[in-house]
């Protein structure tokens, strides 16, 4: 009896589940509309995209440029150093750097360093920060390509600079600044042929002295000539004048 109850009445039966595909053919191009509740949910969670503006690409490009122009503390430090070089150098030369081996560039730097001349290479953004709003702002177009800068405390080092550049044709002289004045390439080379300031002052003093001496000599010319004639007349022998008089009477 207990066995009957257990096996017949108390036995649980698990339902048999079978999965069947939709009886109709699924239309991919025109799917069936979803159920009302599902359609409401899909409408709520549907993403909303902002309509792009007409000049959106230009605005995005401008924002990208502004992002790139963020203040870089390291560039600010280097720009301050470059500005200090310009303020404390009486001779500055700008060199266009063509294709050159690093070994040759190092030799040129060593040759200039022996004459207490420094060679620096800065980027365009650093030079813009260093020279913006200064009297050297006009040289910024020179940094569109790779440009090296030569700094020297003494303007008379210009001959040494030209001598090293003559041995290094990969470095082309573009322009220069001598004692705060911007010079072109031809003016820079012509300045090298001029004597130093001390020699020029000595030559000017000699010219002024000679001019003054000539004026004094011209003013005293007649007096000196008269004195010489009187001295010659005073030193003349009187006997010779008497003999000359007797000969004239005879």
From TrEMBL:
Keywords: Ribonucleoprotein, Ribosomal protein
SUPFAM superfamilies for this protein: Ribosomal protein L10-like
A Pfam family reported for this protein in Swiss-Prot or TrEMBL: Ribosomal_L10
InterPro entries: Ribosomal_uL10, Ribosomal_uL10-like_sf, Ribosomal_uL10_bac_type
Highest taxon above the source species: Eukaryota
Gene3D superfamilies in UniProt: 3.30.70.1730
Entry similarity comment: Belongs to the universal ribosomal protein uL10 family.
Summary of subunit composition and partner proteins: Component of the mitochondrial ribosome large subunit (39S) which comprises a 16S rRNA and about 50 distinct proteins.
Protein name: Large ribosomal subunit protein uL10m
């Amino acid at each position: 009896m207990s066995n009957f109850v257990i096996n017949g009445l108390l036995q649980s039966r698990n339902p048999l589940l079978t999965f069947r595909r939709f009886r109709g053919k699924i239309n991919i191009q025109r799917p069936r509309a979803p159920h009302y509740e599902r359609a409401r949910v899909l409408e709520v969670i549907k993403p909303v995209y902002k309509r792009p503006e007409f000049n959106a690409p230009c605005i995005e490009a401008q924002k990208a440029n502004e992002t790139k122009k963020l203040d870089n503390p390291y560039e600010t430090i280097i720009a301050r150093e470059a500005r200090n070089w310009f303020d404390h150098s009486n001779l500055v030369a700008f060199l266009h750097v063509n294709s050159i081996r690093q070994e040759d560039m190092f030799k040129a730097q060593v040759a200039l360093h022996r004459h207490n001349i420094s060679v620096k290479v800065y980027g365009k953004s650093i030079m813009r920060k260093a020279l913006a709003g200064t009297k050297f702002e006009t040289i910024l177009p020179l940094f569109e390509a790779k440009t090296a800068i030569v700094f020297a405390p003494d303007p008379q080092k210009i001959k040494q600079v030209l001598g090293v550049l003559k041995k290094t044709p990969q470095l082309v002289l573009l322009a220069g600044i001598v004692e705060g004045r911007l010079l072109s390439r031809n003016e820079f080379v012509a300045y090298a042929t001029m004597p130093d300031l001390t020699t020029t002052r000595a030559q000017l003093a000699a010219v002024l002295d000679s001019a003054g001496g000539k004026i004094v000599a011209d003013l005293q010319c007649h007096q000196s000539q008269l004195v010489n004639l009187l001295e010659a007349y005073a030193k003349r022998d009187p006997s010779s004048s008497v003999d000359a008089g007797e000969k004239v009477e005879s």
